[in-house]
Design goal:
Belongs to the short-chain dehydrogenases/reductases (SDR) family. The protein contains 9 helices and 7 strands. It is of the alpha/beta class. It has a single domain (about 5-260), classed as 3-Layer(aba) Sandwich (Rossmann fold), CATH 3.40.50.720. Helix 3 runs parallel beside helix 5 and helix 5 (about 120-145) runs parallel beside helix 7 (about 170-190). The structure holds NADPH dihydro-nicotinamide-adenine-dinucleotide phosphate.
Amino acid sequence: MTSAPAAQASQAPAARTSGTPRHVLVTGGGTGIGRAIAARFASRGDTVTVTGRRAAPLEAAAKETGAEPVVCDHTDPEQLAALLERLPERVGVLVNNAGGQTDFGAPDEDGEAGEGGASGLASYARRFRANLEANLITAALTTHALTDRLAEGGAVIHLGSIAADKGNGAYGAAKAGLAAWNVGLARELGVRGITANVVSPGYIAETEFFGDALTGERRNQLVADTALKRAGVPEDVAETVAFLASEGGRHITGQVIAVNGGAHSTR
Ligand code: NDP
């Protein structure tokens, strides 16, 4: 009788082993979902760096979670290069959370954008590019900068959106692009035992995402659209991110995991 093959699980690299502290970078970790993700990893004993363009929310998040705050605009290669010097040699988990719907709060250029002339087109291109920069370029650039420093067995997680499936102009296109780009990234990193996934939230309350753009009526509609009849909270997303980076998530890669209370199913 032949003996059973050795258990693969026992060969899990340190970055996946329960209780082993890792270094975690959470982009946009000063507010909302990113802040909850930073708190979740810190509570596990990991060391965490949080980034964003504004110092004040980062410092508040640092006080709450013990994370190290670093001001960094993830669309800017020079600021990213400076960030690399503030990180340890090995990063176990990269969470590309920075982003948002850049049309919210943007100056109202609708009249101009609707025009067929050059200035209307320039305005449309500017707004479209802003969403691609904020949601797709930030993640691609940050991952590219850190690729060689990701720990064997580590995890990369990007924040996508239900908008990638339901549509929502340039923002939805940017988040859909993120998911498509991640498929190739998962193959590239997989040979080092590193997983790469997208967590795709539906409506999540208690963040700065909507600013003043959410009416009470729209909020009620978003909650009514869920099967669970409640708004998501940042901790709902943080739990899923933590799982994907855990030992339990070691064979999940190249996927989009929806956290939307049943507001939309890809099946
Ligand atoms: P928040 O606006 O609270 O968080 C976004 C964070 O990203 C902010 O801390 C912001 O900080 C940071 N950020 C934005 N652009 C940059 C940049 N160029 N460089 C560095 N940091 C940046 O909203 P959420 O917590 O809700 O959003 C987190 C992620 O979840 C986003 O990617 C969003 O698209 C996604 N999402 C959110 C949903 C929701 O309903 N809340 C639904 C689906 C997806 P600063 O302005 O200081 O740079």
